[in-house]
Please model this.
Amino acid sequence: MLERSPFFISAGFFLLQDANTIYYIVDGKFYNNGIIQSITGDIQIGIGGATTLGISATGNTNLYMIVFQSDPFTWY
Model:
């Protein structure tokens, strides 16, 4: 376990739509204090494939922001 410090706990979904576009969803919370318990996920991805990443925590205090963001990210 990590020491108490400010951190972000989230669940993420990432889809490689084509060679130039990643669609993502990030849903999470920012805390001023807590302990990170575990990190899970698989980062291997191919075109048309998807992956998820999750972070859970215990002892969370001082919630100061909730985030939900979903968009395609395209580069050339």
In short: The first strand starts at residue 7 and ends at 18. Residues 7-70 form one domain. The radius of gyration is 14 Å. The chain has one domain: 7-70.
